[in-house]
UniProtKB/TrEMBL annotation, chain A:
The organism's place on the tree of life at top rank: Bacteria
Entry protein name: Positive regulator of CheA protein activity
Pfam families: CheW
GO biological process: chemotaxis; signal transduction
Entry coiled-coil feature ranges: none
Organism of this sequence: Asticcacaulis excentricus
Domain CheW-like intervals: 3-144
InterPro entries, sorted: CheW, CheW-like_dom_sf, CheW-lke_dom
Cellular component per GO, a single term: cytosol
PROSITE patterns, sorted: CHEW
UniProtKB/TrEMBL annotation, chain B:
Key words, A-Z: Kinase, Phosphoprotein, Transferase, Two-component regulatory system
Biological role stated in the UniProt entry: Involved in the transmission of sensory signals from the chemoreceptors to the flagellar motors. CheA is autophosphorylated; it can transfer its phosphate group to either CheB or CheY.
Residue ranges occupied by any HPt domain in the UniProt entry: 1-101
One GO MF term: phosphorelay sensor kinase activity
Group of enzyme by EC: transferase
GO cellular component terms, A-Z: cytoplasm
CDD domains (alphabetical): CheA_reg, HATPase_CheA-like, HPT
Signal sequence interval, chain numbering: none
Keyword Cell wall biogenesis/degradation: no
PANTHER family: CHEMOTAXIS PROTEIN CHEA, SENSOR HISTIDINE KINASE CHEA
Protein name, per record: Chemotaxis protein CheA
Amino acid sequence: MSIRDYVTLRVGGQLFGVDAARVHDVFHPRGLTPVPLSRTEIAGVLNLRGRIVTAVCARRRLGLSPRPADAPEPLAIGLEVHGDSYGLVIDSVDEVLKLDDEKFHAPPGNLPPRWAEVIVGVYQLEKELLIVLDPHTLLDAAHLKAA
Amino acid sequence: MDDLIAEFLTETAESLEVVDSELVKFEANPNERKTLDNIFRLVHTIKGTCGFLGLGRLEAVAHAGETLLGRFRDGKLEVTPTAVTLVLHSIDRIKLILNGLEQTGNEPDGDDDDLISQLEAMAEGREVAIETVQPVQVPDRPINADIPEVVIAEVKPELERPLRPGEVSLDELEAAFLAAEAPDWMSDPEPEPVAEIKAEAPKPETKPEPKVEAPVAVAPKAEPVEAASGALAAALGDENGGIATTQSIRVSVDVLEGLMTLVSEMVLTRNQLLQISRNREDSAFATPLQRLSTLTGELQDSVMKTRMQPIGAAWKKLPRLVRDLSHELGKKIDLIMEGEGTELDRQVLELIRDPLTHMVRNSADHGLEPTEERIALGKPANGQVKLAAFHEGGYIVIRISDNGRGLNTARIREKIVEKGLATRAEVEGMSDQQIHRYIFAPGFSTAAKVTNLSGRGVGMDVVRTNIEQIGGQIDLNSIAGQGTTFTIKIPLTLAIVSALIVGAGGQKFAVPQTSVMELVRTGANAEHKIEKINDALVLRLRDKLLPLVQLGPTLQLEAATEENPTFVMVIQVGERRYGLVVNDVLDTEEIVVKPLASILRDVDIFSGATILGDGSVVLILDPNALSERAGNMLEEKVEESTEDAVAESAQGQKVAMLLFRAGGGAPKAVELEHITRLEHIEAEKIERMDGRAALQYRGKLMPILNVADTYGFKEQDIQPLLVFTGEGYAMALAVDEIVDVVEDFLNIELSPDRPGVRGTAVITGRACEILDVDHYLLRGLAEHARRQPAQDLITEAA
C-alpha cells in the first residue's frame, strides 16, 4: 500500500488532481504576453522569476467553456515537461490530499477523446470524483496537435 | 552506466580526436618526434585506463596498437602509409568498441584477433596485407553524447596524462613520483571516485612499482592528472618549449546554462534598480548601484566567456577526413587551417560542425582536380583545401577555399533551366556569380554521379538553411580554373544578441539587429510612401521596389487603427531583402535569447523569447520565416555587380509601353509591339454565350477576356479593347481605360506568383504591373478551340 500526494484543483467546477511531485509551484499568471498564430490553448508566455513560462489554459485544453467574467483571478500550477516550464492556468487550487494507490481506478471508457488522453485515473472521494491529470500528455505538443 | 565508465568515455573521445589528427600529421612527417610521442602517450593512456576498468577487449587492441607505435618510437620500424592506415584501423576499432560500451555499459562481443595479429605482425616487421581489415564506420557523433560536457579551457595536447606504470622510462617514473609529491590534484572537487579507484588500483597491475602506484592510479580523473602533469612540467622545465600550463575543470553544460540564466536575471534586476534610482532625488543608492552595475556587467561577460570555445574543436576531425578522402579519391590534398584559436559560442560551434564537414568534403571531392589533371594544367600536384577563421565585428567569419577547378558555370546554368528555376532568357542575363548562387537552391546538385563521398542528399541548401537558422550568411566566389571560396559569416553567440524592440498591433516584438539593414520612416509627411500593387505592398527605395510585409496583419493582430508614424525595417536574410512594416520602433536592447517551449515550436515565425528590463516577456521574430511571407517576389539582389547589371540594362533600349487601367489597383502596362490594334466598341455588341464573351469581328467570333476574373465588362457605353493576334487567331482583352503610351526603360523588379502578370516595373515614375501577353493568347486559343475545330482557326490577322 503506497500513499501518494495530489494537489487538487478546480477547472470549470470539476475537481482534478495532479501528482504533487510534479507541481513546482502555484502562482498568479500575470503579465501574459500573447503568442500570435499559436494554438488557442496557449494563453501566452510570462516571466516567472527569470524563467519564461508558457501558460496553457486548462479550460480550453479540456474543451470547457471560457471563464466567466466575474470569476476570481485565475491561478496557475507550474509544471515541467521535456525541460520546458509550463503554467497550467486553472480556476483555483484546493488542498493537498494523501491518497492510497489502491483506491485508484482507471478512467471510465466513455470519456470524450480530449479528456480520455489526459486522464490517468479517478479517485472516488466521499463527496465527489477526483480526476487525476497527466501533465505530460496535457502539455505535450504532439498530443495537443492530435486533440 | 557506471560513473567511471561514463567519464572514461568522454575523456577517451577527446583523446581519440587528437590521435586522429596527430596521426595524419605524423604520416606527413614521420621524423617528428614530438608528434609520435604524443600519439604514443594518448594510446597508452587509453590502454592504461581500460585496464583499471576491466575492459579487456579495448585493452588488447590498444596494447597491440601501442606496441606498434612503440616500435616506431624506438626507430626500429619505418613509418609507412600502410602502417599508419593499420594504426588508424585500430583506432576505428577502439571507437567501435567504445560506441558499444556507451550504448550498453558493457564491451560489445566480438573478436579482434585479426586486427591484433596484423598489428603484431607489423610490429615484428613482417609484411601485412591490410586490405582484409575493413575500416569501421563509426557514427559521426561524440562518443559520449548523453553526458554533455564542456572543457572550459582547452588543454594543450602536449600536456597529456602521465604514463601508466609498467613500461615507463626512468625519467617518466621520476616525473610521476614528483607528481605524487605535488598534491595539486588533491584540490579536486569530487574526491570520491578517486578513492574508489585507489582501492581497485593494485589489482590489474602486475609489475610491482608501489611508489608510483598510488598517484598514477588516479589517471581516470582527468583534472587532477592534468594539474599534476602541469606541476610536473613546471618542475622539470617544460621540454616542449614552455607552453603555459592551463588548469581546467570540467563543468556540465547544465550548470553553465543555469549560471547564464541567473546572470541574465541579475542583469534585469539591476536594470530595474537603476530605473528606480534614476527617478529618485536621494542618491544614497547611486554609488553602490553603479558599482553593482559594473560588477554585473563583468559577471555577464565572464559567464559568456565560459561558453566560448575555439573553432579548432570543430575542425579536429577534418585532418582525418581529408586524409581518408585523399586516399579514396587518389588525390593529393593539403589541408591548411588558420585561426583555430578563434573562439565562438559552443552552441554555434555545434551547429556549424556538420555544415563545415560537408563543405570540406565537397571541396576535396568536387572542387579539386585529380592529381594528373592538375599536373597537366601546370598547377602544383597537391590540391589545397584551406580553412580560415577570424573575428570581424560581432561576427566570426569562416572561409573554406580550394585551389581547384572552380564551379562549372555552364553546367549550373543548364541545370537551372532544367529544373525550371529560371528561364533560359533570365539565365543568359545573369552574371556568373548569380548563376553560382543557385547551388544553394533546394535539391540542386551538379554532381554527375553520386560518389561514395558526396551527393548523398545533404546539399548546399541544407548547409545554407543551417547557417541562416543561426542568423548567419553564406556566400561564394568561384573563379574558373582557380578555385572556389565559401565565406560564412555568423554571429559569435546566439545567447545574447542586440535587438530592436518594435511595436505592432499593440504588442511588442524583438527583431535581431543583425538582419536589419536600415529603418525608413513612412507616413503622410514622410518622404517615403507605401504603395499598393493589387494587394501587395511595396516601397520605393532609391529607385528600387522593396516588397513589404506588414507585421500586425501577418500575425493576425488587431490592426492598429491609429495613424501612427509607420516604420519600414529593411531586412536582409541571405540574399533576400524585404521591408517589415511596424507601427513603432521603441528601443534597442541586448537581449538574452531563450528558446520557446516545445508546445510553441510549430509557430515558426518566432525564434525565441526574451525578458525585457521591465520584466515583460517579448517574442523574438525570425526574419527568415517572415521572409517567406514576402512571397515569391524576385529576390532583390544587393551586390554591386547586380546593381551594375541593372544599370547597364537600363542604359539599353527604351520601350514603348501602353499604360491602361483594368480591375482597379495599380496601372497596368504592356509593350506596344504586342498589341495589334486598339478598339473602342459599343458594349452592347459583346455577345455572351454560356458565361463567355465574344465579339463579331471582321467576320469571325473573337473571344474577349478580362484581365482578372474578378470583374466583368462594361454593360453599356464604350468598351476599350486591346486586340492581340496569335498564330492565326485574334483575341481581345477588355480594359477600363487606356491611359497613355509612354517610352521608358523596362526594368521588371518583382515577379508575383500570379498568372498573367510578368512583374512590376516603375514606368515614368509609377509602379505598373506588366502584362504577360502569352498567358492571354493561350487562353484565347483555348477559347477558339472550344468553339471550332482547330483547322478552322484562320482569322485574317491584322
